[in-house]
Amino acid sequence: MKKNALLFFTGGTIYPALEILCRGKTDISMAAAGGICLCLINRVCNHDMKAKPMSVKCFVGSAIITAVEFVIGMIVNVALKMDVWDYSSMPLNIMGQICVPFSMLWCLLTIPAMGICALCEKHIAE
To answer: For this UniProt entry, which segments traverse the membrane (predicted)?
Structure first.
């Protein structure tokens, strides 16, 4: 429980901070997305798939982030009409909520995410 809380807090802090650096703004929903993603990446990529190649882990991490982004986007952007982000102008997008270019970026983001998960686990283990 402690480990998941640390992972959620860490992801919920880092993701909005990255978004502020890149876009100049963020939304509280991005903290929730970041926390959920880091917990799932830790569980799936660092535990369930521990022996798999890094390329497979990156693909799965990207799928996790993209799925979380789609669900949160459908809630905050479509249902609540908050317009937090819009990928409509991006190629290969689905309902403006997810798109292939960002999914490819999430592949790369999975690598440091797994490292952050490992650091959190080490910190809790001590």
So the answer is: 58-80, 100-120
